[in-house]
Amino acid sequence: xxxISSGDALVLVAILIYFIIVLTIGFIYAKRSNSSTSEYFxxxxxxGPWFTALSAEASDMSGYLLMGMPGLAYFCGxxxxxxxxxxxxxxxxxxxxxxxxxxxxxxxxxxxAITVPGFYSNRFHDDKxxxxxxxxxxxxxxxxxxxxxxxxxxxxxxxxxxxxxxxxMMVFGALIxxxxxxxxxxxxxxxxxFVQGCLMFCALVxxxxxxxxxxxxxxxxxxxxxxxPGYLSMTxxxxxxxxxxxxxxxxxxxxxxxxxxxxxxxxxxVSTMSWGLGYFGMPQIxxxxxxxxxxxxVKTSRRIAIVWVIISMFSAVMIGMxxxxxxxxxxxxxxxxxxxxxxxxxxxxxxxxxxLVVSGILAASMSSASSYLLITGSSVAENIxxxxxxxxxxxxxxxxxxxxxxxxxxxxGIAVAWDENSVIFQVVSYAWAGLGxxxxxxxxxxxxxRRTNKQGAIAGMIAxxxxxxxxxxxxxxLGGVFGIYELLPAFLxxxxxxxxxxxxxxxxxxxxxxxxxxxxxxxxxxxxxxVVLEGETxxx
Length: 540
What we know:
Number of strands: 4
CATH topology: Sodium/glucose cotransporter
Oligomer: single chain
Strand content: under 5%
Low-confidence stretches: none
CATH architecture: Up-down Bundle
Order of helices and strands: HHHHHHHHHEEEEHHHHHHHHHHHH
CATH superfamily: Sodium/glucose cotransporter
Distance between the termini: 43 Å
Mean pLDDT: 84
Strand order of the largest sheet: 1-4
């Protein structure tokens, strides 16, 4: 099962070097991270703009950047993945612009919260921690699914490269992520994310440039793809002709597509672009905002992040489309199409460099999975265990519960990823909608509307999460106008629930209103002084 050729051996050496690097980083930060829960869960708020930006984006982009997006572009053309990418780019920018600085300041003002559920509870002075508990449960549910999508990427990578057993390699990748997350905490996650973000960026640029050269230039690529109905259009979507097993039919050496592509109207465009709404509720990104060294460095981080996102997503989409021109009949199912990045890297690069490039896929999935594990562990341990069951729990006890939670999520994620035919893009879209609709409206209202109260916060989270489940499973299958992405109606439902319930229930107490009125007061000088006095070198 594990026999490899000399070329494959060089690929494997490059991947092993990557594994050694990320594990080493985890152990380097182990002592510092385990000094307190604040250090383990949030890095003591000492992370600089470069590490914050690349960590946020690397943890966000997971396996769907290097596998899901290229696979969708390869299979169906420009429209679906293109509008998704545009929505994500806009969402990224607005999240950094509207949320980052305010959340950094408010999380300190509201009881120095070190987790996202903790901020929600502290924001509303929820002594019973009902808000934080509900938020932690939602995170637990959807991040288990998210972790599964990342583990799918690990298994599929080794299966595609070496023909090794998918399940064994999926479990192996999951255990590596678990190990360095458990040992090193937030600082190791941020530091490895920085390395992984750089690797992902370089891998995408190398493969897209090499693909253009291999295809004989842009003109030849466009000429070939133009013959596929709707493939290059942003207002229609190419429809592969498939058999009963979902495999695209090939005739006379060419893949078959429906003569009449599916129209991509305004409603569908708005629905697809609504992916960007999810950013306002992504805990793995919100916690980066909370952990940045100073709110004055948010602007620098925002610029770094948006440049990284735009170039990376553009490259991912181009790789999928150019790949269709280079190997039009090799990847004939939507699931197999998600390996186009790996296949092109194998074709165009020497073995060792191919290993370095495909390590970018591991970087994408592992950076995201580590964030999901850490955030889930911190939410359960800090907001459920210490928040409800043992309010006098020591930091050591909280860390133990956090690691037990990591193990539980690891096992559930492995169970989700057990099916090697899982389509990463679809798995991610479901979890993205659940988190975005549950927390996106609440984050915005908590930061911008002083009248928001605890009852409204609870109603917004429950309504958003419930609508995702209802729309996805019961309404969306009806098709037509109901076929829109579930995040859009669920997000709107969450907003309405917050406003209506907050207005129908008692106004927040005066202490909550006073805190809201003053949370944007300048405290940057104080925070920078604290960092200097603490005598620890922050991550840049």
